[in-house]
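U., I forgot to send this yesterday:
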Amino acid sequence: MVTKLKKKTAANKKSAPDLSGSIKDSAQQIWQAGLGAFNKAQAGGTKAFEALVKEGVSLQRKTQSAAEEKITEATQKMTNMATDISSKASGQWDKLESIFEDRVAKALNKLGVPSAKDVDALIARIDALNASVQKLAPGKAAAKPVVKTAAKPAAKPAAKPAANLLQNLLQNLLQKLPKRLSPSQ
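Result:
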């Protein structure tokens, strides 16, 4: 750095040329120190910048993973809520459908309309009676359905009274069935 003058008296004699040289030397040394500091700052600044970038990347990854976890958690909660609401709504619709079916069945029953069970039971009985008639009169064809006419009186001799009785019974049953359920259609 700046060197001190040894003696003030000697400095007074040479003061003008030495003082300007020493100021020049000091300025030169300050300039060189500044350049060295700038160079170190530049080299250290690059390293510091790279370190900050690495920290930023690390922090960004951490925040992204935390955000993804929260999004996944929220999505799962919403899915569970939607499933719960859907199942509750489905249960309510099933309950409403059941109530509606019961009320319609009661109203139809009050009107005298046979239920599906009643019709199935009648069909089963008719099939059983038809099979019985076929066994009693094997040479004859099956009883033909009558379309809402009065039962014909038995004109045949009483040789086969059981077969005639069953045939009349079948015809009466077929007349009582609603038109839409008759086997002739």
